[in-house]
Amino acid sequence: MPQRPHEERVCHGVRFYQSRHSRIRQLKGLHSPLDFGYRVWTSCWLLMDYLKSLGLPPGLRVMDVGCGWGLAGIFCAKNLQASVTCMDADLEVFPFLDLHAELNQVRVSTLHKRYENLTSQDLEGIDLLIGADICYWDEMPEVLIPMIEMALASHVRLILIADPGRSSFARLAEHCEANYGAGTTNFFVRKPHPLSGRVMKISNGSEAHRKCPASILK
Length: 218
What we know:
The protein is an alpha/beta fold. The chain has one domain (5-217): Vaccinia Virus protein VP39 (Rossmann fold). 33% of the residues lie in helices and 23% in strands. It is built from seven helices and nine strands, in the order E-E-H-H-E-H-E-H-E-H-E-H-E-H-E-E. The protein has helices at residues 22-30, 43-54, 71-79, 94-103, 120-123, 140-153, 167-180; strands spanning 8-11, 14-17, 61-65, 83-88, 109-112, 128-132, 158-163, 183-189, 195-203. It starts with 7 loop residues before the first strand and ends in a 15-residue tail after the last strand. 39% of the residues are buried.
């Protein structure tokens, strides 16, 4: 049966299926993502819009942590010609990621790990680490802070984390501002629908020799 037009959409050049699309319904009959991996979460759109504003060069190596369906990583692969690794603790989200990578005609790698199990070897060579809606529980700052510290120690050039504005994210941002020189920006987008949130940016200033332009440090 033909799909209705609104069951497949495009935003920031990324094509994505609505939950009612037959291919999504079929996958949900075969796979049961745990926790929150059953849909596209809105902060990925904040992150994409913010990434567009930075004027990043092509060809970066990107890791999308807590990727879920992977649209933020797919955006980087499609619009920045980036080499992308999508990481998640839940194997059941990867079929949804693969479906959207196929839809957008890009290739991304996957990494099945929890935040606390990431190693410096996993992060070696990564220029940009991104995450959207990953600070969803009260205890998440305590989980994410060691990952951020490891990323900085592993010479990751830039870290961006987007969130709708949860109190747990505010605690994470406060810690990162005090300890790593992070900046947090209130952000609003109109597409695919109006929404607001915050984007935290941590620039690894000691790595000025890497590929990202100096302008992103400002």
